[in-house]
Structure to design on (428 residues):
């Protein structure tokens, strides 16, 4: 199987963690988001993902985009190490946590959006960073409150083993750090991130460990 | 069961369609996004959803947010009318289509984001509308290309009955129309929307048919 990825893409980072947690080996196909006006926007890559975004995934059965869809597919095809709980409320909760990251935080800080803010709307570097920090902080505050109130939060986002929620949380925390967001106020998030980040599956998925890292 | 909803929220609209497709009756709890500085941001509602966003869902087992997580939960609990295909690649494809809407389009045009653009960044009405149209158009173009290339696209987004993908597509098309986007160029999207919109489950979920409609 192949993963079209960019080392710093947090959506690709999520899928790398899931693949590693399941012990699946895959071929990395680097798609450089900045070179050549963005390789993800070239016709060649649009044959894989017409939306022109990473990650994209391919195996012998499917070409698939959207990190959540890819990870759910992996979870169904390779159930030996499950990334969703066995009970319906548990699964719902894990999906909810992942989607807080996928829908409420990450889309606002995507490269194409930041570019529009700077190039089309003329935002300064300061204004751009304020924008980024605003949505990450607001989103993490919501995520933290969800984790804080729920007895199902364990050492991981849900209970005592990594789930899809952790695959989404860790890359978002990595992004938060890049923009100097103080994580101390999000004590559950900081605690879960600290636990995950040293596990081999998470560590090997880190942007700095990718073949296309700069 | 209860749905915390706002008539014009496209994320709530998705869940209403899913509930109707499954023939489930529910209590509507209106949360007005504009009155009282936004009822979704009040402490009372944050007890339900700490992120301060609609929709939220409650039954005797769970309080749940995020439209995709809510609909997947409904699909697991009430499988009689399935909203996901039976095969793993089919399910992956439906989730992918829904997430193109949920992650690539909708978050950029959310009320809180548009407010920030106007209030914090001083965008004019014209600039705001250009922003909205840009992300809807780009997202719908991706979605259209996905639908156009895939033999699994049937009369509906996937094959011959409504799935989660249609629950996401129709509210996004409704939003596109509100901002005068010409749908003629997205022929698969326009065709699927036209088929869905008259079905009773979709029609009853329309914003204009809600108890809190204005």
């Amino acid at each position: 199987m192949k993963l079209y990825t960019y080392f710093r893409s947090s959506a690709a980072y999520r899928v790398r963690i899931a693949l590693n947690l399941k012990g699946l080996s895959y071929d990395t196909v680097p798609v450089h988001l900045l070179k050549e006006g963005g390789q993800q926007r070239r016709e060649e890559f649009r044959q894989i993902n017409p939306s022109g975004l990473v990650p994209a995934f391919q195996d012998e059965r499917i070409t698939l985009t959207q990190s959540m869809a890819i990870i759910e597919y992996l979870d169904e095809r390779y159930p030996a190490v499950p990334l969703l709980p066995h009970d319906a409320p548990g699964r719902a909760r894990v999906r909810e946590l992942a989607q807080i990251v996928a829908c409420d935080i990450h889309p606002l800080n995507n490269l194409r959006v930041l570019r529009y803010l700077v190039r089309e709307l003329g935002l300064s570097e300061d204004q751009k960073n304020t924008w980024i920090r605003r949505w990450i902080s607001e989103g993490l505050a919501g995520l933290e409150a969800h984790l804080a109130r729920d007895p199902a939060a364990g050492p991981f986002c849900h209970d005592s083993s990594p789930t899809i929620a952790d695959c989404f949380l860790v890359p978002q925390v990595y992004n938060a750090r890049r923009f100097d967001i103080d994580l101390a106020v999000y004590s559950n998030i900081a605690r879960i991130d600290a636990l995950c980040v040293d596990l081999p599956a998470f560590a090997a998925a880190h942007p700095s460990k990718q073949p296309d890292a700069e």
